[in-house]
């Protein structure tokens, strides 16, 4: 449901009212007065739901098991016919909105957006933070052309952003062509020039359609330290390139005919958004297809507005602090202003389009994965950093080499994990072998240059430095990973090792090809890649082994301070370790996680801790797996209570939840079981999704390709007694198998009175996941 009223219709005295209204519609209606009725009904029938408030629209959406759709629609439609807006819910949701806002205060994205709104528009225009009671279409904010320096929370990337005034082109979509022009990675492109001169590492282009009458176009450059020092030169390159584009023109085309089906929730949400904008015949195709080959006239019009005179330029970096004396009132962002001056120069933009797709047969998506396992990865901080740098530099080279192929829907990427280096190819299967040949040739000739190496070292060091300034819930998960996975190294260890070089001396290659390819084509692809990056089978004792630390019965607590001194929130993460996938424990864990997270009010953890107790906006529960070991994770982020109190409240909730299990009716339990069983076997709806699922079985050396359907059958056999027995053993306080690791992250504004706890953990590990190659999984038993 797309309601054509959003935040720009907020009364001046009631900022956030549209967002608040969005929240309130979920909390009881005339026909379904219980606050949690809709959430519970959707969750118990295998679905999910959400909503968002935009400038001119508020969108509500859900998905649900097909048989439950009539009941979901009845509850959903009552949102808009008869919401209750009860006094008790109103008071709580005001606090919830404030909590949601507080988690964004230290986010650079939110801070930058608000700075632009507050400093660029005509007084009284809804865009600049002082909206009228009713927004009138057709009015556009006047752009205040100047340069701003602002002080970010993080220090990962220095973004130099130019935000000219624009408008929406629904049919021609000139922004698509603009994005392709500016983000081109081939030789002669803007990005190639910035990298060659050591000024920048990435370019992003965005079109933020604020209303149906105007949009903001953003071109952002990620600068190196040298680029920050010479930012006028980098900015000059950008505007020179834009001038060249205005002189030469450009075209763009997107494929629509062979698009794979979207997930139902994404499909209905996108279609609802397009219905007010396109004629009915174009509700599906309108957002994707370009008419008029990209619309050269509108593209020229768009480019015509992207000049230094029309731009607002922002330099965002820690180094600008001495020149940022002003403060934005809502987020407290420090900033300053000065005139724009920059050198302009001509650049070369010779972009080829030689990768065409022939439609002699219907193309489908093909995927090819190549994995080199090596015992050298992550044996030390030095080798871990070396692997990251190698993968990053190769990915950059592959981007440039395959840019033209990417314009035809063919992509190549590389990455690294704790035990392997991977290359992934994807796109229309007809040209996938040709892409593999190009990638193999690129890998074979790849020789990192000193400039590329230093640039990647600079990026990695800033990434690691900024990692400590993430939100508290993210830091809690990171600390849990360090505690449980011995192959991981801290950000400090990795940063200290950055800059040291190394080589990959031994590796075993595994490959997986999926799609409409013949066996000989797949084999040829593998041979080409194998020749480019030699590999040989490793002896059993040389294969890398990933193990997870086994927690002792009882509990351990570790405490940390948030890295950002301005962060108002603290966080609790409680991890209850269960163990490997043995018997029905994994099924019990999934079922219990679903019930705790989505049970009817007030039994769900979200409803109790977030809605009723108002501890914070982020309250979640979910199952997790690492290196074959399962567990249950609770996270709560709060600015109103410290982590130890959050844990006490969570433990109190868990004590009461056993009663919820006992009182759950057979009908309710069956609904949960059936919902999860249906979700388990609802896989492989898209070719890329199927390839990803199958590849995960290869990468983890499990090779159990039929697991979803067997798990679905087993889920339907789970009993109440089995579920309660699992709860008593692994979840209940004092349970014989309860193994808890609690991670507390305190706000520096509210640190603990005593020293931070750092309970020791034993050097005991689960055995590595067994190699499932050759196991007769179809028989549901381990017979080799």
UniProtKB/TrEMBL annotation:
GO terms for biological process: peptide catabolic process; proteolysis involved in protein catabolic process. Keywords: Hydrolase, Metal-binding, Metalloprotease, Protease, Zinc. Signal peptide: none annotated. Residues 603-695 form the Coenzyme PQQ synthesis protein F-like C-terminal lobe domain. Pfam families: Peptidase_M16, Peptidase_M16_M, PqqF-like_C_4. GO terms for cellular component: cytosol; mitochondrion. InterPro entries: Metalloenz_LuxS/M16, Pept_M16_N, Pept_M16_Zn_BS, Peptidase_M16, Peptidase_M16_M, PqqF-like_C_4. Belongs to the peptidase M16 family. This is Uncharacterized protein. It comes from Emiliania huxleyi (strain CCMP1516). The lineage of its organism: Eukaryota, Haptista, Haptophyta, Prymnesiophyceae, Isochrysidales.
